[in-house]
Amino acid sequence: MFLRSRRPGALASFLLLTAGRPAFAEVEAEASPASVAARIASCLEADPRLLAGKEEIHQAEAEEVTASLVPNPELQVASGLVPFPWSPFDDADHPGGPPQLEAIVSMPLDWLVFGKRAAARESAGIGVDVAKAGFDDLRRQRLLAALEAHYDLAEAAGVRELADEAHREAERLYSITAARVGAGGAEAVELDRVRVSIAERRRELALARAAETGARARYEAIVGRGCEEPGSLEGPAPEPVSEHAALELAEKSRPDLVGLRLHVDQSGAELRKERADAFPELSVEAGYTRQFQRKAMGAPDAHSWGVGLTVGLPIFDRNQGGLAKARSVRRQAEHELEASRREARAEVTEAVRNYEASFEIATTHDEEALRAATRAKERIEEAYALGGRSLLEVLDAQESWREARRNHLSSRAELWRSLSRLQAAVGVQVLP
């Protein structure tokens, strides 16, 4: 039941106070978290850090091309048994030679016979998959950073809007109080109290604008300008996922774990490559020789050819160091995989628990507190406009309402941030 006005202009003062106040239920529908993440991910395609990380894939592919190439043959051209200019060959007094020209082509065969090229190609091929997994993990981390910056900006924008609304309400309260003082329903000191409130609201608005500018700068530093603008923090959030399901998703989907498993496979391939490299170098040769016998021996020049086989003798160097290092690298990769699994399990567990808490706070406690603070504020303002409440009660109700709004904004932003962290922890953007 409305209170009956006890002085002229009270109802008009109430209408002035409540004019332009947005209803709590009137919130802008927010797009789903998956669609927001998809639009931000499309902006990240031009992220310099991601573009730099993508070059790692191109470099690994180049190494695979190098490992698949067949070794080049070698050509050796030599001239031998040539006399010094001041000491020519002579049939009677200074026989020698005959001078000859040799051209020898050698072709390595150890890459084929001992499987060195195949082992190198296997290792390089897995290296491409490792690079792709590393790029996926970089993209996961950059997307998480962009989403957190996105919701930081949304929270900062909401706080700025709240500060702007609080400033307008303080000015409306000043007009009402001035009207009451003029009508003799309030003392003049109340105007000074409202002026203090207006100054505080201006200070909060200036700080909120600066915070929003800083949050926007951090967001645009990641995604660039012209990307997804933050909207309302309201909207339904997915139900919390069980810890067991989240751990299973992380084990299968997290690109860093996938990359480490591939790194273990690559270290095994590297060990096989080092074993192949322990075999000696092997090459086959074929050559042509022309002997210049006419001046040296008085006989016609002669043409001949020959073949040969060159093989190293692995007496001292049998690639002992390379094999020992490859075994150590494999053990290291296995230990790193197990350590990352433990860290990932802890990260997933923490993310699941944080999201459960954020979900409960944002969807239950803070919404109830905001509704209660909004009802209390409206009723006290209505009663104040009609002369039934004091200014201190109005200011206290407004402060409680602002605190409830700030808590609500913070909890909603933390809800989406914790969801983004959970999605990043399990390695998927859509939770079951």
From TrEMBL:
Keywords noted in UniProt: Cell outer membrane, Coiled coil, Membrane, Signal, Transmembrane, Transmembrane beta strand, Transport
Subcellular location(s) of the protein: Cell outer membrane
Coiled-coil annotated residue ranges, if any: 323-354
Cross-referenced Gene3D superfamilies: Outer membrane efflux proteins (OEP)
Any single GO CC term annotated in Swiss-Prot or TrEMBL for this entry: efflux pump complex
Top-level taxonomic group: Bacteria
First and last residue of the signal peptide: 1-25
GO terms, molecular function: efflux transmembrane transporter activity; porin activity
Membership in a protein family: Belongs to the outer membrane factor (OMF) (TC 1.B.17) family.
Protein name: Heavy metal RND efflux outer membrane protein, CzcC family
Organism: Vulgatibacter incomptus
Lineage: Bacteria, Pseudomonadati, Myxococcota, Myxococcia, Myxococcales
